[in-house]
Amino acid sequence: MPFKRPSPARSESSSSVEEHPSKRPRLSSPTEIISNASNTRPLKVYIVPAKIDSKTFSSLCRLTERRDAILEKVSPKKDGNGTEVDVCDFDLELSGDVHEADVVVTAVHMKQRLERHVDWELAKSKAIVTPQWLEDSVKYGRPMPCGDYAALNVLHDETVHECPDRPSCNSGSPEPGPSHTSSRSPSTSKQIPEDAPQPADISLLTHTSRYCCCRASPLVCPNQGLIKQLDKIKEARNLEGEERSMLSYARAISVSPFPHVITHSNLKREISKLPYLGEKLLSMVEEFIKTGQINETQGILTSSRFQALSAFTTIHGIGPHTARKLYNLGLRTLEDLERYYEVEPGRCGQETLAVIEAAGRESDEAIVERSIKVALALRHDFSQTIPRAEVEEMNRVVMSELEQIEQGCKSIVVGGYRRGKPQSNDVDIVISHRNWESGAGKIKGLCKRFVRRLHERGLVTHVMHLSGFHEHNALRTHHWDSLEKALTVFVLPGDGSQRRVYRRLDLIFAAPQVFWTAVVGWTGSTMFQRDLRLYAKQQKGFKFDSSGISRRHDSKLFFPKTEREVFELLGLVYVHPTLRNADI
Ligand code: 8DG
Ligand code: CA
Ligand code: CA
Questions:
Q1: Where in the chain is the domain with CATH 1.10.150.110?
Q2: Cα distances (angstroms) measured from residue 8 to each of 2, 40, 100, 494
Q3: Which ligand sits closest to the CA of 525?
Q4: In a mutational test of the pocket of ligand 1, which residue from 423, 431, 522 has the highest number of ligand atoms less than 8 Å from its CB?
Q5: Which residues are close to ligand 3, an ion, with C-beta < 5 A?
Q6: The CATH homologous superfamily of the domain defined by 384-579
Q7: Is any atom of ligand 1 closer than 6 Å to the C-beta of 14?
Q8: 429, 526, 527, 546: residue to mutate for ligand 1 pocket, most atoms within 8 A of CB
Q9: How far is the CA of 346 from the centre of ligand 1 (A)?
Q10: Lowest mean pLDDT among 59-68, 250-259, 359-368
């Protein structure tokens, strides 16, 4: 195996990590994709060979070598006009000694298994990541935030802390928000990897649009503090069933990814011109600028009614209406709910198979009641968020099981994961078939058949809801879609040495002709999808939902072959998934 030259002693950059002991993973923003880490010393990468076949192992090793070539191609020092662009001298070096590695790459996810290769105490002092970290770091030309790729849940925090993702490029610290990227010359877009947000697209989005599907909404924006405060008021309105007011706050939140920090000086000039910020909301924004908080939010947070209702709605199946009903019965805590629903924490002996067979014949009340009982019993597991590495592993396991009963299927993990969230509350996977002609026939009925199989294999332990297929109906007014889907509880296979965490898994089945509409719909975010539907209706006379696109006046159906085509059909500029975070 060709190892590179030994590197010099650890440089200043490592101390920068120590200066921030509570460092959290940095979150992707469009700016960060092209801004990068700067360091003169190559990052040393040690690859644990266990669970990696020899072909993959050598291709991972080669990635560290290919790094230089890719960097040359991706980041020339000058653009066509001779202007300096971001150049990051991030470099990788393969290390044969785990002791001196900055990052340890492994396909192992269990403590016991890793301990056979790396001393546990040593492991705790390293960033331990999945092979995907290496692939993405090379792809994006910067060391990715390790926390998003933590190989072992138990070492997540150590991995975040030890991660050598160092901000700053020779172009200085970039202005936050998409305006930074959009101000670049179009030629820069050629240097960005194809699946990253393209500056040419971003430059066509406008933050003053009424529709969030025409704006760029990164995961974290300069006004995150304000957004969090507004979100509590939105939640309170939602809990009280005040839907119109709730939507006003949701809209205010969705326009707040304004690309600059909101200050006194831009409040009158620019912010007051943003859509949906009426007098009341502007006065709240002003209050936030002055005091760093909003009085109404503080009142909400201390309200015991809000606390109870908010806790109740963390349980899948309990919406605001049910939460208020339970509160009116005198229930105040989740323990009260356990008693009320006769649930024992951690235990729910549900007849999963019977649920699968009864799918489609149950009343809505029965479905909801079952969801609540399962979610209540497993709430301690469900409250643990899912790191990206585990999301990817779940998708791998699901797809290899699917291959056993139906060959030629494909999948995309959607939801918050696809929008770049480092941690997800549940996993959403859209599944389709590669064959455009015969695929629809193979997908029909597959949901039930597959869930039965996953249950037999011990991977799906509970089914909250399982629905069959209905044609996309251009006249349908229903909120969501008509795809086959299963809302399940899933556990990864283990070797019995460690208890696996129960995870919520949503499986959505789409024929090839509606695969991309399903992917766009289920990628979200909720407000983004809401505005897609609204834009399609108001501006194009189309109906859009996850199960298809149709023209309203003649019900003609459209079958996009790519995600970009979905946007093109609706007359929209393509918005990269990581810029669709229009909710908090
Ligand atoms: P997280 O809380 O899971 O981390 O974030 P998320 O992935 O954004 O939330 P989610 O509740 O899993 O929802 C994923 C997206 O799917 C979201 O934008 C809304 C959308 N969605 C549902 N239910 C349904 C549904 O029944 N049909 C369709 N088409 N979309 C749905 O939540
Ligand atoms: Ca999700
Ligand atoms: Ca979900």
A1: 208-302
A2: 18, 10, 11, 41
A3: 1
A4: 522
A5: 426, 428, 506
A6: Beta Polymerase, domain 2 (3.30.460.10)
A7: no
A8: 526
A9: 25
A10: 59-68
**Sorting pLDDT into bands at 50, 70 and 90, what band is 582?**
very high
Contacts of 359 (CB under 8 A, 6+ apart): 448, 463, 466, 467, 468
**pTM across the whole model:** 0.70
State residue 42's pLDDT score.
Answer: 82
Listed in order, the ranges of the chain carrying CATH 3.40.50.10190 are 42-195
| Contact indicator for 308, 322 with CB cutoff of 8 Å | no
Indicate which atom in ligand 1 lies nearest the CA of residue 545.
29
- Residues 302-312, mean pLDDT to the nearest whole number: 98
Give residue 469's pLDDT: 59
Mean pLDDT for 284-302 is 96
Supply the mean pLDDT for the chain.
Answer: 82
Q: What are phi and psi of 78, to 5 degrees?
A: -125, 150
Provide CB contacts within 8 A for 8, sequence distance 6+: 41
Instruction: Give start-end residues of each CATH 3.30.460.10 domain in the chain.
Output: 384-579
If you measure from the C-alpha of residue 522 to the centroid of ligand 1, how many angstroms do you get, rounded to a whole number?
6
Q: Which one, of 564, 579, 568, 577, lies nearest residue 540 by Cα?
A: 568
d(CA 268, CA 262): 10
Q: Tell me the mean pLDDT in the region 248-262.
A: 91
Q: Please state the rounded mean pLDDT for residues 16-26.
A: 31
The residues that bridge with 43 in the sheet, in sequence order, are 92
- Using alpha carbons, list the distances in angstroms from residue 357 to 329, 348, 456, 506: 34, 19, 13, 18
In the sheet that holds 548-551, the strands lie side by side as 542-545, 548-551, 557-558
Band (pLDDT 50/70/90 cuts) for residue 279 is very high
Q: Residue 413 has which token pair?
A: 């993990």
Q: Are 63 and 138 in contact (CB under 8 A)?
A: yes
Range 329-365 burial, b when 16+ CB lie within 10 A, else e: eebbebebbbeeeebeeeebebebeebbeebeeeeee
525 C-alpha to ligand 1 centroid (Å): 7
Q: Which distant-in-sequence residues (6+ apart) come within 8 Å of 298 by Cβ?
A: none
Of the candidates 202, 159, 131, the one whose C-alpha atom is nearest the C-alpha of residue 23 is 159
Class of domain 208-302 as given by CATH: mainly alpha
Distance 414 CA to ligand 2 centre (A): 7
Q: Of residues 361 and 393, which shows the higher confidence score?
A: 393
CATH architecture for the domain at 42-195: 3-Layer(aba) Sandwich (3.40)
Is residue 108 left, alpha or beta, with left meaning phi > 0 and alpha meaning psi from -120 to 50?
Answer: beta
Query: What is the CB-side half-sphere exposure of residue 78 using CA atoms within 13 A?
Result: 4
Q: Give the chain's radius of gyration (CA, Å).
A: 25
> Is 480 a pocket residue for ligand 1 (Cβ < 6 Å)?
yes
Whether pLDDT at 123 is above 50: yes
